[in-house]
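Appendix B, example 12.
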Amino acid sequence: MKPQDYWEYPVAWRCPKSLLSLGVIALLVYAFFRLLWPEVGSSAETVMAVLGLLSVLILGRGIRSGGALWLLLAAIAVQVLSWWLGRMDHPQWVADNPKIDRLAKLFIFIAVAWWLGGSTRNTLVLWCLAVIGLLLSSVVQGDGLNEWLQGFDGHRVGFGVRNGQHGAMLFGIVLLGMAVFTPRCLAPGRWRIARVIGWGLVVGLSAIAVMIGQTRAVWLALALVLPLVLLVWLVSRRRDGRQFVSRRVLLASSAVLLVVVVGAGNLLKEPLLERVSKESSVIGMLLDGKIEEVPYTSIGIRIHSWQAAFEWIEKRPLVGWGGEARGLVMDHTEWLPDRVKEKYGHLHNYFIEIWVAYGAVGLALIAALAVWIGHATWQAWRGGILPGDMALFGASFFIYWLVVNQFESYNSFWTGVYAHNIIVGGLITHYWRWQLQDGGARE
């Protein structure tokens, strides 16, 4: 059976069937294999992105003139400008080409949105494939099942993704998504028993993975976002006067999940408490303003590297130092210890990395992209095209992403780029559908 036989795709997209087949297959391979089999997933990403962008430019009437393509052009211009000015001012520290992929890769969501065809079902299928791919990769990559067992022994694990932070970040997104989509997963209908069991397994495994990943930024982000999700649930229920899911099913599922989480928490109590309290003295020094006395611990390295970055930002605040800037900060800041320079080549904060690389112009671009995505999501939801739970997931992901990228440059690595594009593509495809069906005449 060909993809176009089961893949929802509106006539307004006007994509040839042969091209649609190739694009959809590349998208599905990208979503499923990017973590499970990185080489295959990376190749599929390239095919999917190139074909998708060309399709939007050639066939995307009513879409190609929208904000996404203009922001992509602005991203290219920002990088070229910073590179060109760098070649004039400090050519020895600038690459031979502007390396426009540093920001352009954040716009792969354009191709993802195109191949999804504005379909909620397609989007949910894609997100489910990504979750399955992550779960399988956690037992195939790295040390496999043994890595999970090491986590219960108190070791910090990364599930073979990149390191502990990146694995925990991805499982944090899954946990957040499963929390938001709880009513959908537990609602009456076809395959209810399978959905309930699947929901419990994924939530339980994700919660355990977040704990044994031992990444405090992920814990902080989830601690901020999950209560907001619950609050939105309660407000929506009170306003609409409807029951999202039967209390019996919800209570039974919550009880099983509570047993799993509490059991895992008891086993991991000592390493978790140690992780939380490990750098309390460092935090105390920061609160007292004793930055110079902060040791080069996990938090201390971040503080000192940010301090070094701001010294570079002060010299070129508007256009930055070019795409290699984060490495320049770490390698050429004299007062940073050699052991830190040898081990770290980035700044553990995506927004500071953008500022030091592309200046205030680059930061403005990232802010504009975030505002545009938020506005598009709002429009699609208000227009009745984007379901409420998906809009809530988009909003909660934005907060989560904003927090975790303050302490690690996820969007500078393929893991963060993958998560960003898969999720944003699923939101923007609904916005394009809204534009073509309902809002196009008003836009």
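The chain has 21 helices and no strands. Residues 208 and 264 are 7 Å apart (CA to CA).
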